[in-house]
Specification:
single chain; about 400 residues; alpha/beta; eight-stranded mixed sheet; disordered C terminus; binds S-adenosylmethionine
Length: about 400
């Protein structure tokens, strides 16, 4: 089967986790940048990656790298590609792009040129042409064009993989599913021991933890991917891949996942989302203030994602919440490893504990930190509160 370079995109901060996932799946890592990791493989491998990756957003299969100084050259190069072998003539095509070329003021123009080259070519070869538009739920082609070099990819994911399909009821400020998976991976939780998620909101962290603990491929939850709308898509092979990963996943969790929130609507939504993800039996839900969350045993991880507010009044109120989180960690969570995910370094300081490690992430473009606190057991004294430094 023809192999090519495969670029997997992800939000900034996540490449280390994505890279580890690729290594675990026995894929080579060819290169890494701030928002993606490159590997290589066939279209069959691209299907496997869509099925198994937790932190990747789009699996882009390289068709051609080329020189192009301007839109005319771009059209000619793209028109030479045998698109009729990749895009169904009676299908629907969407072009996405990332363009930084001095002759192009509006990337939509580059998209239009790209789309014209593809549909003109198919019309010339086959007599008819696919429809085109902005929807990403069928064939998607991605154009990367920087200065006078371009790469064109088949986007085998289509809709980004962060849309797992289980979050039917998002509440407030939900965390993207891929980010939640990276946060769980950062904690090192692997299914054994306790995973406690007070302030669970719509349940994303607890659901991703359960999926990770069960070794359940997130792609099992989705019924549509870009590769299904490419010529030569082998539905029987896809079923076979799905069946294989389904068999490999665990039936139940050795550890315990507990998710709570003060808002009953949030807990209701989280339960429904967990049911859609097929993991509701692995998570114990309850409505309570975070500090009343039941803590079984005396070890495990506690992950909290409090709001980090933008308005002044909110920030004042949240200062008290962050202080309470610090007190809760100190007084009730000894033996556990505590984590706070926040976009506000000032609020994080109110926890008044020195983080052992920090991870940098980006949530909807906002720079965020996952702060890790070791909450010592027994008589060992807590370290004197210090200002957080990266
Ligand atoms: C930023 S949201 C969490 C979003 C969540 N990670 C998700 O993906 O949906 C913060 C949550 O904290 C909850 N919350 C706020 N104060 C709380 C408290 N004192 N005790 C428990 N939950 C609280 C809110 O109801 C809200 O659902």
């Amino acid at each position: 089967m023809l192999k090519s370079r495969i670029l997997i995109t992800c939000p900034k901060g996540m490449p280390p986790f994505l890279k580890q996932e690729l290594i675990d799946e026995n894929f080579p890592v060819l290169s890494e940048n701030i928002a993606g990791v490159e590997t290589e493989g066939s279209l069959d491998d691209a299907m496997r990656l869509n099925l198994s990756l937790r932190t990747g957003h789009r699996v882009l299969f390289t068709l051609k790298e080329f020189p192009a100084r301007d839109a005319g050259e771009l059209y000619r190069v793209l028109h030479d590609i045998a698109w009729e072998q990749h895009i169904p003539v009676d299908g629907y095509l969407c072009i996405t792009s990332s363009v930084e070329n001095p002759t192009i003021k509006d990337s939509r123009f580059a998209n239009l040129k790209c789309k014209d080259a593809i549909v003109d070519r198919i019309k010339e070869k086959c007599g008819i042409r696919p429809d085109s538009g902005p929807d990403r739920d069928r064939s998607v082609v991605h154009l990367y064009w920087k200065n006078d070099r371009g790469t064109v990819y088949l986007d085998t994911s289509g809709e980004p993989l962060s849309r797992r399909g289980y979050r039917k009821i998002p509440l407030g400020a939900p965390m993207q599913e891929t980010l939640a998976a990276a946060v769980v991976l950062a904690t090192g939780w692997n299914g054994t021991g306790n995973f406690i998620n007070p302030m669970c909101g719509s349940g994303t962290l607890a659901i991703e933890a359960a999926l990770i603990g069960l070794d359940r491929a997130p792609g099992l939850l989705r019924s549509n991917f870009g590769f299904m709308h490419l010529k030569g898509y082998n539905a029987a092979r896809w079923s076979e891949l799905r069946e294989k990963v389904r068999k490999e996943s665990k039936k139940s969790l050795p550890g315990q996942v507990i998710a709570t929130d003060i808002n009953p609507d949030a807990v209701e939504a989280a339960k429904k989302n967990a049911a859609t993800a097929g993991v509701e039996q692995c998570i114990e839900f309850s409505v309570c203030n975070f500090s009343d969350t039941p803590l079984p045993g005396n070890s495990g991880v506690i992950v909290m994602n409090p709001e980090y507010g933008e308005r002044m009044g909110e920030v004042k109120r949240l200062e008290a919440t962050y202080k309470d989180i610090g007190d809760y960690f100190k007084q009730k969570c000894r033996g556990y490893t505590g984590y706070v995910f926040t976009g506000s370094p000032d609020l994080a300081k109110k926890v008044s504990l020195k983080p052992k490690r920090t991870f940098q992430f980006f949530n909807s473009g906002i720079e965020c930190r996952l702060l890790e606190y070791e909450l010592y057991e027994g008589t060992r004294k807590f370290k004197k509160p210090k200002l957080i430094q990266d």
